[in-house]
Amino acid sequence: MALEIRQLGPESPDHRLPVCLLTGFLGAGKSSLLNFVLRHPWMEGTAVVINEYGAVGVDHHLVESAPEDTALVADGCICCTASGQLADALMSLFLRAQRRQFTLRRVILETTGLAEPAPILRQFVSHHQLKERFVIDSVVTLVDAANAASTLDASDIAVLQVTGADRLMVTKIDLVNEADACRLERRLAEMNPDAVIERVLQGVAPPQALFSGVHRRAASGADLGVMFGNVDLLRFTPDVASRGPLLAPRDRTPADHAIQTFSLILDEPIAPSTFFGWTDFLRSLCGPTLLRMKGLVNLKGQTLPTVVHGVQNVFHPTRQLPAWPSEDQRTRLVFITRGWGQDVVGSTLDWLQARPVLASAGDPECTAPR
Ligand SMILES: Nc1nc2c(ncn2[C@@H]2O[C@H](COP(=O)(O)OP(=O)(O)OP(=O)(O)O)[C@@H](O)[C@H]2O)c(=O)[nH]1
């Protein structure tokens, strides 16, 4: 059987596979970190489970170096609506490894940015098949230095992600000054004095940092009780009504108070000037309530997909993928917003598309990825 056995002590061989729960609020840098660590030889035998919302999800396309043994749980959040799918995904990985289809040494479980750790941890101690075969080794939470102050003030989930972590990785330090970085680290240390706190730039971290090598104290102990006490902070509401084929409503949508998630699909390529004008407009209109926008864009005049990432007030530089990940070459954008929804997205885009195009798609100023 191609499963690695963990030796905890001379009398207690532990056959369970270690799991790193990789979490962090929307856009904190989880996929960037995964992309980096998965290239390391030490990660051989590491399976990845990626959780994302809805059928139009794009995360799995953005983790470029994901191993073949990547499972996608794409129809809800594994801390709530898709919890059954997590067990299915892990058991399927386990059984494939048992059939010697690949070597399985450990698992990284990348959550959605709105996942709360405790309900996921609980599945590892309550699901009888999971608890026999897998054990949480560490909870690693990424904290986006550029947005953390507002995020921690506004979101209970972000707070729970910090307080539930064994290791806090502060990302995007390059976007803040040293005084703000230190202030954030002090705040994190007050919130979670037991956690290791470190800085990570552009996802560059040693892969070993994700696995402690010892089973998580909280996974079997009373600490979970404290964390489970917060589960009721989450509330789930149905998505708002669809405004037609332009916007694909999600079947089941987690909500942190007024949080909404939805996808935008554009069948036709969009002029760069229209697209970037529109994202600038949305950013100035919605600011930090545009919690997350990400996806693949088919820009007029370009053959390759452009990857866009917006996180609250910060729009990161775009980049191109070396190829379209599938035959579907439509623009697919995932939005997570607070206090407004797809009507704003639809009406602002309609308005911009109705305006005369100011510069042609062939204009290098317009077509160059930003
Ligand atoms: N400047 C800067 N940008 C970063 C850093 N780490 C990640 N990013 C950028 O932040 C954006 C979001 O990063 P992702 O890795 O997709 O974040 P994520 O946590 O996986 O996002 P969700 O899964 O949507 O919650 C991307 O444009 C990254 O290139 C960093 O250390 N510095």
TrEMBL record:
A single GO molecular function term of this UniProt record: nucleotide binding
Keywords: Chaperone, Hydrolase, Nucleotide-binding
Keyword RNA-binding: no
CobW C-terminal domain ranges (all copies): 259-353
Catalysed conversion reaction: GTP + H2O = GDP + phosphate + H(+)
Family that this chain belongs to: Belongs to the SIMIBI class G3E GTPase family. ZNG1 subfamily.
Descriptive protein name: G3E family GTPase
Primary role: Zinc chaperone that directly transfers zinc cofactor to target proteins, thereby activating them. Zinc is transferred from the CXCC motif in the GTPase domain to the zinc binding site in target proteins in a process requiring GTP hydrolysis.
One of the record's GO cellular component terms: cytoplasm
